[in-house]
Every structure is written in structure tokens, then in C-alpha cells.
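User: Predict ARSJ Arylsulfatase's structure from this.
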Amino acid sequence: GYLAWGGRRGDAGEAPGDLLGEEPAAGAPRSQPHIIFILADDQGFRDVGYHGSEIRTPTLDKLAAEGVKLENYYVQPMCTPSRSQLITGKYQIHTGLQHSIIRPTQPNCLPLDNVTLPQKLKEVGYSTHMVGKWHLGFYRRECMPTQRGFDSFFGSLLGSGDYYTHFKCDSPGICGYDLYENDNAAWDHDNGIYSTQMYTQKVQQILASHNPRKPIFLYIAYQAVHSPLQAPGRYFEHYRSINNINRRRYAAMLACLDEAINNVTLALRKYGYYENSIIIYSSDNGGQPMAGGSNWPLRGSKGTYWEGGIRAVGFVHSPLLKNKGSVCKELVHITDWFPTLITLAEGQIDEDIQLDGYDVWETISEGRRSPRVDILHNIDPIYTKAKNGSWAAGYGIWNTAIQSAIRVNHWKLLTGNPGYSDWVPPQAFSNAGPNRWHNERVSWSAGKTVWLFNITADPYERVDLSARHPEVVKQLLRRLSQFNKTAVPVRYPPKDPRSNPKLNGGVWGPWFKEDEKKKKSDKSKGANKQKKIKSKKKAN
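Assistant:
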């Protein structure tokens, strides 16, 4: 059925006009577009057919070939940071989420004073639905997806979990169920269905029950292809020849994901959305070689600021694109979707929101120059400091012990400890299981704490130019320093024992009760008043 979208009609491929009367004539003014944002999890840069992978992805290849491939497209190196930047249009240094990810036991979430993409789309009449992985915190009810702009939510709150049982252990004895429908645990859906297929069924239900004449924003954040490496047996069919067990499982997971996206696309056509839709596909970070992913020939992996951690698979597919079948090599970053989609939806961006994203629709659709000339990949002041870093190594402008990375035009500068820095060829995967801490591993690189690359000329980061171009290094360090002046404090609180699912009916979910805090603060306020009255009497 992959190639049947164009002409054939049948149960899954009716043309929209068959269902809903005539489509508007070409050139007629269209209403607000339907926006479908599909975010894959941990898909490596090489892990798509059109990047030369041995894993077949016919749906992704076809959608990308008929749309616009984003071949200079950047995300963040881990789950929470990319998701936070997508939904706010802001760099991590401006939300306080610049270190690592939100752990299940941390009382932390995307700060509530940030306006979100679904909230802005709701303002202009969109129905907003989220299916899949949230990973932006849930310790308070106000942090939940339904409180952050989504009319409905079906999916998981944590960063990973079992694809069939939806259980997750954060550490021995700290285990719970993690599948939600809106604000409640979705025990009814615990039917042992593989999450990629279950989420796709939910998307089909949403599309079937919504009126396609009214705009919809559908955010589909699949769990695949993040570890644990699990897939239904039939998807292993084509990959028995892959010796490495992790790569074989990963290939089966990706094959299932590709089929799921085919089914989503067929549903968009069947129910009359397709002609006025914009489908955006993106990975949230680079692949994890220890868990089957491949970023070859890029350097590094998930959790690092090398290109393999942050350069992503991405494309836009839409009948509304002007330059279909093209490749966009202009600089695009995940923060850019916020202003781009709000503008397409005819929404307003408040002047007081300090965005880091740019409207890149004309860049993508018409091939114009990108308004973006730089990307702050991140500044993480609490990541393990580089042993040999110093202010002197940063020319007195920047302390090179601090982990940071920035891109300005063709130049990319890294300081501190940028993370696992090898190039991992596809055939070199070990048979070791996915190591949970692999993406946090610290590797010291012969005492260096500053690297400079011309990414346009050297996308694989093989030739460090920091010694040859000290003036460029100084220029980029100054830019880093400017960004750092605008940073807010890091939010990375310690574990809260109240987060244990055993205290919450065996479910991961909000545990922080606002009332308790108010009562305590009211009591202390009362006590303070009494003290003040007593001290006044004494003074008198």
C-alpha cells in the first residue's frame, strides 16, 4: 500500500473530495492548515533510506522526496531539551532546562510561565491533540499536557518504558505504570498492544471524529526508536542478516514506525485533511550506537554536541509547499517551528515573548535564505567540568571548562567536555546491550577544551581549526558570553521521595500537592503575625 496514495481509491485511500464535496480550486484561498508534527525518538542521522541506511523506510523516503528535505537541520542532543524548545521556541538557557533531562523522580517541569505552541494555536481556533511521549515533567497537575494547551492527551509522561506493558522502573523498587488518557492512568488501554501501533490507532480515531473543515494540530511523539529495543516479530523479516542483535531489533522498530506513518498519511487522505495539511517529521536527537542507532558518517552520538548528537533527520511534506521535491540546505533549528507554525496558523506572537526561533516557512517552501545565522546549541554550567579548561584557554572571554557549543554561519565552536567523540561506522556496533548511562559518559580528549570547525566544508568534524583561526575562536567565545548574560538559573532539583508510584496507586503521575504547601505557608504566615504582635507589645 505504500505507493497507492496517488491514484488508487479504496477503503484507505478515498480522495478528500469523495467524502466532503469538491475541494477548493487550485489558487483559491485556503483556510488555516492542519498541522501534523511527527517526532521520532532517538532516530540516528543515517537511519532513513534516503541517507543510505540498510533499513528500509519507504514511507519516509516517499514523503521526503515529494516534500522538502531539511539537510542543515538541528535539534538538541537529548529528549527533554528538544521537546522544550519545540513547544516554546526558546533555547534551554531561557527556560532553565539546560542540564540533562527531566528525571521521573524530580519535582521539575517546563516552567509554567512559558506560553506553549498548542496554547497559541488554540487562541486562533485550532483543536489540539497530543499522542505519545511528553517528557516535559508532571510533578504537579499544572505541568500535564492537558494543562499546557492540549485538548486531549494519550501517551506516556516519562522518557521511556516498556512498549507493551507501559511499565517503567527508574531504579530498583521505584516502578510504575505510565500510560495516560488526558489526566488519568489509561488502564483500559493496557491490552498489550505495541505502542507504535497503539498510538497510530489513536491518531486514526482522532482524525475520524474531527471535522476536517476545522483546523487541527496533531502532535505525534512516537516512543520509537528509543530503547528498550522491542518490536513485533513480523518486522524482523527483512533484517535476519544483521548480525548485531541491537541493530536488528532497532531495524524492526524503525520498519514498524515507517509503516505507522504510512497509516497516518492514509488516514489524513481518507478523512479529508491531506490537501490542506502540513506534515513535519523530525527526530528529537541523534542515534545511540549502543542501542542500535547510527549517525555515520557524523561524529559522536546522542547526548553529545558533536554533529551526530544534534544534526537530525527532518523534512516537511505538504500540498501547500511551493518548491516540492527540493532540498533545503539553509540553517533550521527546532526552535523555529514555534514562530513558523503560529504564523502559518494566522496566530499572533506577543512582542513580550523573547523567542529564539525564526519563521522559516519561506526558506522551506520557496527556497529563500534562512533568517537564522546562528544557533546556540547550549551552555550547561553544571555538566562535568573539563579538567584542563580555564579562562586563559578562552582568551579571558570564556571559561573553557564549561560545556557549551555554538554555531555561527559556517563555524561551530565547542568548549568543555562535548561528550563521546568517536565516529562509529555502521558495521562496528558491539553486541553489548543498551547502556543506560552511555549518553552521559565522560571522555577526556587529550587535554583539549576548545574546538573549531567549518561545518559546511567539514561536516564530519575531522579537522579542528581552533589553532589556525584564533580570531574566529574569540569572536564565537564573545557570542557565547553574550548569550550567557541572558541565561536563567538551571532547574535540576534533587529526587523527591513522594514521586514513588507506590504512593500513587502504582502509577507515575503528579505527586506535588499545592494545598499542602499553602497550608504550611498559611500556618507560617499566621505564626509570623503572632510573633510580630508579641514583639510590638514588648516594644510598647
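The chain has two domains: 34-372, 377-486.
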